[in-house]
TrEMBL record:
<protein>
    <submittedName>
        <fullName>3',5'-cyclic-nucleotide phosphodiesterase</fullName>
    </submittedName>
</protein>
<dbReference type="GO" id="GO:1902660">
    <property type="term" value="P:negative regulation of glucose mediated signaling pathway"/>
</dbReference>
<dbReference type="InterPro" id="IPR000396">
    <property type="entry name" value="Pdiesterase2"/>
</dbReference>
<dbReference type="InterPro" id="IPR036866">
    <property type="entry name" value="RibonucZ/Hydroxyglut_hydro"/>
</dbReference>
<dbReference type="InterPro" id="IPR001279">
    <property type="entry name" value="Metallo-B-lactamas"/>
</dbReference>
<dbReference type="GO" id="GO:0004115">
    <property type="term" value="F:3',5'-cyclic-AMP phosphodiesterase activity"/>
</dbReference>
<dbReference type="Pfam" id="PF12706">
    <property type="entry name" value="Lactamase_B_2"/>
</dbReference>
<feature type="domain" description="Metallo-beta-lactamase">
    <location>
        <begin position="18"/>
        <end position="209"/>
    </location>
</feature>
<dbReference type="GO" id="GO:0047555">
    <property type="term" value="F:3',5'-cyclic-GMP phosphodiesterase activity"/>
</dbReference>
<dbReference type="GO" id="GO:0006198">
    <property type="term" value="P:cAMP catabolic process"/>
</dbReference>
Amino acid sequence: MRFTVLGCSGGIGGVDGRTTSFLVDDDTLIDCGTGVGDLSLDELRRIDRVFVTHAHLDHVAMLPLLADSVACGRDSPVRVFAAQGTLEALAQHVFNGTMWPDFTRLPSPAAPALSLTPVAVGESVDIGAGRRVTALPAYHGVPALAWCLDSGAGRLVFSGDTAFEPGFVDAINAVEDLRHLVIETAFADEQHALAEASSHLCPQTLTGVLDAIRSSPQVHVCHLKPGAAERILSQIRGHAARLATRQLCRGDVLEF
Ligand SMILES: [Zn+2]
Ligand SMILES: [Zn+2]
């Protein structure tokens, strides 16, 4: 499985300021932030499915535009997998005929651009070629999921946006053959109160997560707020968690 980082910043600004979006092989997206806008039309048409962590704009900003671009260039709908509450938010607030057309019924109800499929924590989706994607719990103040990608040879967990909660750590500890953990750290420690209020991690709470994980994956931190990246990374190093970390960057490719 090839996991390509299209965007992993906590905000926009410059060529590396692309928000959360990962391409799995060439047919699957994990989140649909602004990084998806860099794909060519041919690459967009090869996307068969999108796994969405939650409905916040930095994770779905390109989903309406993806639907529009591929609506007439594919034989089947792009399948969107997310928590039921996330799909309801997308239907109510995005594909509502006002913000954007309802591409679950367009170009025609019989052959729409998108189809929406709810996934509950613990459920797996078979995406072919021996690959599976499983929903894990995340805690973000809105319906949210983390995703576990299984290539058949190893696994990668992407946290989405989440606070430090025991259920999240327990779910990671239940994953066998965990090779990679891609995990957010949105705020610096001096913004701990803001991180807590918005259900995000900061270096201190990230360290709590990493010290509670019993396996030894490579840890890639992402979703750093623009302008605060160096400070967040230096604070993470200062906490010296049991697991070492590196910064995830746009263009990185993780193979597992
Ligand atoms: Zn969020
Ligand atoms: Zn976010």
